Amino acid sequence: MNQEPGTDQQILSFCQTHYGVTFPLFSKVDVKGENAHPLFQYLTTQSSGLITDEIKWNFTKFLVNKKGEVVGRYAPTTTPKKIEKEIQSLLKES
Predict the structure, then answer these.
(1) pLDDT digit string (tens) for 52-94?
(2) Domain count of the fold of the chain
(3) For the chain, give me the number of helices (H) and strands (E)?
(4) Rounded-to-integer distance, Cα 87 and Cα 10, Å
(5) DSSP category for residue 10
(6) Which pTM was predicted?
(7) Residue 87 to residue 56: CA distance in whole angstroms
């Protein structure tokens, strides 16, 4: 729905300038609807949302283990700090 109208390069530049991002970013893709990227199709079929399985808003978070299994889905308002223990636990798994 045109929530991020910029090109991939413009988005990267904005994130580097305003947030100090130094890691690579994914390209912009559709996350909902008939043109949803296969990654988001997978994530939403593996983990139900509260009211609907669709991603409701930016910053919905999915926690995926090393086997590629979705082990958590979090609301856009959930900060990474709030799920730090879950993230740390998954990083320790072999």
Answers:
(1) 667 776 788 999 999 999 999 998 889 999 999 999 999 998 7
(2) 1
(3) 3, 2
(4) 30
(5) H
(6) 0.74
(7) 22
Q: Residue 22 domain-assigned? A: no
Q: What end-to-end distance do the CA atoms of the chain give, in Å?
A: 39
Does some domain include residue 17?
no
Instruction: Dig out the tokens for 37 from the structure.
Output: 């990227």
Nearest alpha-carbon partner for 48 in 75, 77, 86, 78: 75
Place of tokens 């139900």: 48
Residue 46: give the domain boundaries.
Answer: 31-92
CATH label of the domain that carries residue 58: 3.40.30.10
Amino acid residing at 5: P
* Tokens linked to 47: 């983990």
**CA–CA dist 13, 92 (Å, integer):** 33
